[in-house]
Design brief:
Blueprint: E1 2-4, E2 15-17, E3 21-26, E4 29-34, H1 45-66, H2 68-77, H3 84-95
Antiparallel strand pairs: 1-4, 2-3, 3-4
Length: 96
């Protein structure tokens, strides 16, 4: 694994290039590493439960956005910088 402290080519870069190289940023510099192969990773039972719950929360929030009356009710609760979608997702996750 290569470590880069000062490099004008990768200055400000992070993320991945294609599906071959990942550029990671750490306090001591940048690290280039191989893109992870997650194909053989099987999620745990708890991960599956959380993913399912989040999918339900997204469906709930999308339903709120489609219903004008419910959307208006949520808009009254919003604080600056919040969206109806995110508030609805958060509410669903906290209550279920």
């Amino acid at each position: 694994m290569a470590r880069i402290k000062s490099n004008i080519i990768l200055h400000g870069a992070s993320g991945h290039i294609g599906k071959q190289v990942v550029i990671k940023q750490y306090a001591y510099g940048k690290v280039l590493s191989k893109f992870p192969d997650m194909g053989n990773i099987k999620p745990s039972e708890k991960q599956e439960e959380k993913r399912s719950k989040f999918s339900d929360a997204v469906a709930y929030a999308q339903g709120i956005l489609k219903d004008a009356a419910k959307k208006a009710a949520y808009e009254k609760k919003l604080k600056p910088g919040q969206t109806v979608y995110h508030v609805a997702v958060k509410e669903y996750l906290l209550l279920n």
